[in-house]
Amino acid sequence: MAHYVRFDIYLPTRFKDSAGTEKTISDQEIEDFCENIRNRFGGYTESNPVATPPFRGWWISKDIVYIDYLISIFTLVKLEDQDKAKGFFEEWKQTLERKLNQEFILISYYPLQILGEL
Q1: Is 14 in contact with 110 (CB distance < 8 Å)?
Q2: What is the pLDDT of residues 46-68, one digit of tens each?
């Protein structure tokens, strides 16, 4: 049995820029992010990028209800690399929040045991 940490990242597929114009996240933005994950941690899994976004989230900020259409990306990191991975994803979180004009990009992580070694 091997010990890992799973990082889950939820990216909005549509968002409004600072001028209020509706935008769609580009394939290149997703690819750049995922390429960085693959290069750093050896792999990732992404929800189907060509289908309708699999997740829809509702949240309230300043008495306004927002609806997000989200894709999900996850990666497994060896337990001993958890702190480095947290730093990596904290930097990306700030970058994505700025680029996608988001108050908050959800990135969660939790310990995970798998059968066998990756």
Answers
A1: no
A2: 987 667 778 888 988 888 888 88
pTM of the predicted protein model: 0.89
Nearest to 31 by CA among 20, 39, 22: 39
Residue 53: what are its φ and ψ, rounded to 5°? -50, 130
Tally of CB atoms within 10 A around 80: 10
CATH number for the domain spanning 109: value is: 3.30.70.120
User: What is the count of structural domains for the chain?
Assistant: 1
Nearest residue to 95 (alpha-carbon basis) of 6, 29, 43: 29
Q: Angle at which helices 27-41 and 82-99 pack, to 10 degrees?
A: 170
Domain hosting 48: range is 2-114
